[in-house]
């Protein structure tokens, strides 16, 4: 009988049951909540289903999938080796029409103005005791650009990947709730009702020249973030030349879908209880919110400052679209403007600063990496 | 550049980064403002390109 008991005990010790603790159960509940949010509330389902599932599996003690050599670990290696973020940008480039940005270049500056949140979060993180490299990675959450946040984090503070990526993607999904109160607080009703003049038509030659020119500029001035923007521009070139339709569709669909699966598994698999259930996580989540609020506010104020110098006034709601997170921020600007004037369709105009925000985040990230001596 | 790992360092990095970002993105804006000049070179017909697609 004793022998049988010892045998069963040894069997139990070999399973994960012997190592489970309350942290695992909390993280499994968080993973399940993510799947629920995706399925029931339709919050970022493409991301949350995979992240939630991998988060649950990562917290099953004894699961080999997240250990070195495990399948999820290979997905994580795609992030760690900085292969996945540029490939996401490749797909995004193939899906994106940059004409609103080309058509109205004066709005491009809002793509930088809306990034004050990055620096507020960076300073806040340093004040809370994070290292400067960690603070830089946390600050980039304010760029509201998931792949860029992952890219910069992997270069500056890879151990913070789960917290930063979850904060960045969560707040991007919550932008329709976070941004409008800030936008309304900083603008008058008259300002929100400003109607923008129709933008000019952008020719095919300009559309084809754009990715080539930007590719050269970024590689010349911002080598640390060049892989991301270069791939964004390659995807966009495939789209705009019209002669490689097949490649553009593959980049925008098949490649993008495979990469999203790998990315979500990689992020979710890093969300183990011992790494995630810390005070640091709460601080990062709070700083991420601060970054989004300040970024939205600085974009709106930036647009209002521009109005002091231009004859043809711009709607300051366009400023908050400069925070990137394409196209969510542009949609929020459009929706808030529409509440004031049912005939004011801002979406096309808002896409200009919104797309410029992608470059703004890349430039901020590139300068940050250069200043901190990271290649 | 060796930035001190202090609050002052964070402030310094933030200030330099913010103003350089505005400067750089303004540069991109200026380049884009010149884009209409490309149309003087010629015109590309969308339909002709679509006919050649692979």
Characterise the protein shown here:
The complex is a heterodimer of chains A (375) and B (54). Chain A has helices at residues 2-14, 22-40, 45-58, 71-80, 84-95, 99-103, 110-113, 116-127, 132-139, 146-156, 161-173, 175-185, 189-192, 204-221, 226-241, 245-269, 273-276, 279-307, 317-320, 328-340, 347-371. By secondary structure, chain A is mostly helical. Chain A has one domain (86-371). The radius of gyration of chain A is 22 Å and the shape is globular. With 54 residues, chain B is mostly helical. Chain B has one domain. In chain B, 61% of the residues lie in helices and 0% in strands. The mean pLDDT of chain B is 91. At the A-B interface, helix 7, helix 8, helix 9, helix 14 and helix 21 of A face helix 1 and helix 2 of B.
Helix-strand layout with pairing:
The complex is a heterodimer of chains A (375) and B (54).
Chain A: H1 2-14, H2 22-40, H3 45-58, H4 71-80, H5 84-95, H6 99-103, H7 110-113, H8 116-127, H9 132-139, H10 146-156, H11 161-173, H12 175-185, H13 189-192, H14 204-221, H15 226-241, H16 245-269, H17 273-276, H18 279-307, H19 317-320, H20 328-340, H21 347-371
Chain B: H1 7-33, H2 46-51
């Amino acid at each position: 009988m004793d022998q049988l008991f010892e045998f069963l005990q040894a069997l139990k010790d070999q399973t994960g049951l012997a190592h489970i603790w309350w942290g695992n159960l909390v993280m499994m509940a968080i993973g399940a909540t993510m799947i629920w949010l995706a399925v029931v509330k339709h919050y970022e389902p493409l991301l949350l289903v995979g992240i939630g599932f991998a988060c649950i599996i990562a917290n099953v003690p004894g699961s080999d999938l997240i250990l070195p050599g495990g399948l999820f670990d290979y997905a994580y290696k795609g992030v760690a080796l900085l292969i996945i973020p540029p490939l996401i940008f490749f797909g995004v480039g193939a899906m994106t029409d940059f004409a609103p940005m080309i058509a109205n270049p004066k709005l491009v500056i809002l793509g930088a103005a809306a990034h004050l949140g990055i620096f507020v979060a960076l300073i806040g993180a340093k004040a809370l005791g994070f290292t400067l490299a960690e603070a830089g990675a946390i600050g980039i959450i304010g760029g509201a650009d998931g792949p860029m946040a992952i890219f910069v984090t992997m270069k500056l503070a890879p151990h913070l990947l789960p917290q930063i990526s979850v904060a960045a993607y969560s707040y991007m999904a919550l932008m329709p709730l976070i941004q409008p109160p800030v936008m309304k607080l900083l603008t008058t009703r008259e300002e929100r009702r400003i109607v923008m003049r129709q933008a000019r038509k952008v020719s095919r030659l300009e559309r084809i020249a754009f990715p080539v020119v930007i590719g050269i500029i970024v590689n010349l001035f911002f080598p640390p973030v060049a892989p991301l923007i270069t791939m964004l521009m390659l995807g966009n070139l495939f789209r705009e030349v019209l002669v490689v339709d097949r490649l553009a569709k593959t980049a925008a669909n098949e490649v993008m879908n495979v990469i999203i699966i790998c990315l979500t598994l990689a992020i979710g698999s890093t969300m183990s209880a011992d790494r995630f259930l810390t005070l640091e996580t709460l601080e990062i989540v709070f700083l991420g919110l601060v970054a989004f609020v300040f970024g939205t506010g600085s974009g709106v104020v930036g647009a209002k400052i521009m109005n002091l110098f231009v004859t043809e006034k711009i709607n300051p709601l366009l400023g908050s679209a400069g925070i990137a997170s394409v196209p969510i921020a542009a949609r929020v600007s459009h929706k808030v403007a529409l509440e004031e004037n049912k005939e004011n369709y801002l979406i096309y105009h808002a896409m200009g600063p919104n797309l410029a925000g992608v470059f703004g985040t890349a430039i901020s990230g590139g300068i940050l990496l250069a200043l901190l001596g990271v290649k | 550049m060796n930035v001190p790992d202090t609050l002052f360092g964070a402030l310094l990095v933030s200030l330099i980064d913010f103003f350089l970002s505005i400067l750089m993105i303004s540069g991109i804006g200026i380049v884009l403002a010149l884009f209409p000049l490309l149309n003087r070179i010629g015109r590309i017909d969308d339909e002709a390109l679509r006919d050649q697609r692979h």
